[in-house]
Design a protein that fits this description.
Blueprint lengths: L1 E2 L12 E3 L5 E2 L23 E3 L6 E2 L13 E3 L4 E2 L24 E3 L6 E2 L13 E3 L4 E6 L12 E3 L4 E4 L13 E3 L21 E3 L22 E3 L14 H4 L5 E3 L21 E3 L21 E3 L6 E3 L12 E3 L4 E4 L13 E3 L4 E5 L4 H4 L5 E3 L4 E5 L12 E3 L4 E5 L34 E5 L2 E5 L8 E3 L4 E3 L14 E3 L6 E2 L13 E3 L4 E4 L13 E3 L4 E5 L19 E3 L8 H43 L1 H33 L1
Parallel strand pairs: 1-3, 2-4, 4-6, 5-7, 6-8, 8-10, 9-11, 10-12, 11-13, 12-14, 14-15, 15-16, 16-17, 17-18, 18-19, 19-21, 20-22, 21-23, 22-24, 23-25, 24-26, 25-27, 26-28, 27-31, 28-32, 31-33, 33-35, 34-36, 35-37, 36-38, 38-39
Antiparallel strand pairs: 29-30
């Protein structure tokens, strides 16, 4: 790491400076020190382009940057800059135009820690065509005055801040935007009417913008150039249009209405959007069936219709979506069997059909059709039959969730061949798609673990899980699972599994949650489980385990509930003491008692020696000592006898 040398401010004729993506630290103030050698009153008077993005610059933006009168491109993105924007536009008295940065065309301050509001004077940057302030901590109200001279503006990124837009209902912006990103800005509650004037839009993101009205009809004819349309996480109402929106939006590639209140059916006209790569209608209240015309979207990479009220069967025609990588139909009311035509979706990486009413057997072709499958989620359906052993061919699988079905039979020993789960490292889910198709689509998965329901998004790549709980599986505990060293969550609860937990379970060093409750497992709990240092949740309740709980190491962190319902278990943390603990206590008491007795008799012997024998030998050595000693004893005895006679005479006289 190093800082920007202050001497760089002396480069009076410098026009282009690019120090991006180094490890520069320090502050921007270093850049403009030492400018007294320049004839001009402003620092770096000829500088036109300054790129310092992707460093570790700190502190505020110095106000003197506003004196860079010839500056056209300023990129300070991806740093640790703080402070407020007004600092950038003061000190402009040295420019002939008397306005800040009069020639500035591109300003990128994104991905910093800037705070405060945007000054109205930013609306004076009449040459500005790109303004990027996204991913900061900016706030405040944006009015028409902030944009009044920005007639050349084409790219506006102010998303991931806390702005509030306050413009009149009949406002006509002075610009014609191509890219408009206002996600997380407060724009609603009504749909912004000023968008009608934007005929050149290619990218539009109004996600999480507090819009609670319906989508006006004019919106679908807003721009034939529109490629990305993101209106997710609002409170949009109404229905999707039945008109041929493909005629109006022929270039649309990304379409997201997730997290709204859209009702009605998915129109057949969706199939006319043949350029679509991503459809995300998740978390609405859509009804009806999945239209078969969707198979005309040949370029589709992501189809997410989860969390709706869709019914009917999965269309067989989905097999024509040869580019499909992610298919989410979870949390609907779909029924019937899995169409065998799905096997043609060989590029599929994620298949989530959980929480439906699907039935039939889990076909063996699933194990051979999807060599790149990372997530297979068929949870909470009505699948029956046995687990196909060919599931082991899913060498890229990270998540296998077949819980809450009617599966039976033994767990295939071939599960040990799930190679991706045997690795300590995890892949990045974002690598499933190219940059274009994954843009603004975030994979998510509901995982029930540690007794809780958790949604994983950005940390999804950390999830390596097998969940076969709440079925009718039988047979012995599959020891091969202990060779899947990358496992983080393992749940085999509520089945009929027998046998013992193998000592080799200690090899699952990544294991964070283990649930084997409500089975028929027996024997001792292996002491090697104390080595599972990552284990944060354990449930072995309602089995037939016996003997003493190895309450040491990581096992000592769990409470009684983790072991309840095993009548033959004993020891901490249970209140039931082990029998051998009582025997051991008795033996210890006997040992302690014998030890005390030995010392008792030894002390008596020593007392006898010291009190009797020692004086005898001492007195025997000198006769004078012996005579003196016994004379003294005679006197004591005579005195005691005399005292006794006197006391007796007194008592006898009192009675008379």
């Amino acid at each position: 790491m190093c800082s920007i040398p202050s001497s760089i401010g002396n480069f009076c004729n410098l026009q282009y400076l690019d120090l991006s993506y180094n490890k520069l630290n320090g502050s921007l103030h270093d850049l403009i020190n030492g400018t007294e050698t320049c004839n001009s009153k402003s620092p770096l008077p000829n500088l036109r382009e300054l790129y310092l993005s992707g460093n570790q610059l700190q502190g505020s933006i110095p106000s003197s940057i506003g004196n860079f009168c010839n500056l056209q491109y300023l990129d300070l993105s991806n740093n640790n800059l703080n402070g407020s924007l007004p600092e950038i536009i003061y000190g402009t008295e040295t420019c002939n135009s008397k306005s800040p940065l009069p020639n500035l065309r591109e300003l990128d301050l994104s991905d910093n820690q800037l705070q405060g509001s945007i000054p109205n004077l930013i609306g004076n940057l009449s040459n500005l065509y790109s303004l990027n302030l996204r991913n900061n901590q900016l706030s405040g109200t944006l009015t028409e005055q902030h944009f009044w001279k920005l007639s050349n503006l084409e790219y506006l990124y102010i998303d991931s801040n806390s702005f509030r837009l306050d413009v009149s209902s009949n406002w006509t912006p002075p610009f014609q935007l191509r890219y408009l990103f206002m996600g997380s800005c407060h724009i609603g509650p009504t749909f912004p009417a000023w968008l009608q004037s934007q005929k050149d839009l290619q990218y539009l993101d109004l996600s999480n913008a507090s819009i609670s009205s319906s989508i006006p009809n004019w919106f679908w004819n807003i721009s034939s150039n529109l490629e990305y349309l993101i209106l997710s996480h609002n409170q949009l109402q109404g229905k999707l249009p039945n008109s041929n929106i493909g005629e109006f939006l022929p270039n649309l590639y990304f379409l997201s209405f997730s997290g709204n209140g859209i009702t009605g059916t998915i129109p057949d006209s969706i199939g006319h959007l043949t350029s679509l790569g991503v459809i995300d209608f998740s978390s609405n209240t859509l009804t009806g069936s999945i239209p078969s015309t969707i198979n005309n979207c040949f370029s589709l990479n992501v189809l997410d219709l989860g969390n709706n009220n869709l019914s009917g069967m999965i269309p067989k025609s989905l097999d024509q979506l040869q580019q499909l990588k992610s298919l989410h139909l979870n949390h609907n009311k779909l029924s019937g069997e899995l169409p065998s035509s799905l096997r043609n979706l060989t590029g599929l990486d994620i298949l989530d059909l959980s929480y439906n009413n699907l039935s039939g057997q889990i076909s063996a072709w699933i194990g051979t059709a999807f060599p790149n499958l990372v997530i297979l989620n068929l949870r909470s359906n009505m699948f029956s039959g046995r687990l196909p052993s060919l599931l082991s061919n899913l060498s890229s699988l990270h998540v296998l969730d077949l819980a809450q079905n009617n599966l039976m039979g033994e767990i295939p020993v071939t599960l040990v061949e799930l190679k991706a789960m045997a690795q300590d490292h995890n892949m990045s889910i974002s690598s499933l798609y190219d940059n274009r198709s994954s843009y603004r689509y975030e994979e998510r998965l509901i995982v029930i673990t540690k007794g809780l329901t958790q949604e994983y998004t950005r940390t999804l790549s950390l999830v390596v899980s097998i969940d076969l709980s709440d079925n009718n599986l039988s047979g012995e505990f599959p020891e091969g699972i202990t060779k899947l060293f990358g496992l983080v969550f393992l749940n085999l609860s509520m089945n009929h599994i027998i046998g013992r937990i193998p000592e080799s379970i200690s090899k699952l060093r990544q294991l964070s949650s283990l649930d084997l409750s409500s089975n028929k497992l027996f024997g001792s709990i292996p002491s090697s489980m104390s080595l599972l240092s990552s284990l944060g949740y354990l449930n072995l309740s309602n089995n037939n385990f016996s003997d003493k709980i190895p309450f040491i190491g990581q096992m000592s962190t769990f409470t009684e509930s983790a072991f309840a319902g095993n009548p033959n278990l004993c020891g901490a943390p249970l209140v039931i003491k082990c029998q051998d603990e009582g025997k051991d206590k008795s033996v210890e008491d006997k040992i302690d008692s014998g030890f005390v007795d030995q010392w008792f008799y030894l002390s008596i012997g020593l007392g006898f020696v010291v009190g009797i024998l020692v004086p005898y030998f001492v007195l025997a050595m000198r006769r004078s000592w012996c005579d003196a000693y016994f004379d003294f004893v005679d006197k004591i005895v005579k005195w005691l006898l005399f005292r006794k006679r006197v006391t007796y005479a007194r008592n006898h006289a009192q009675r008379k």
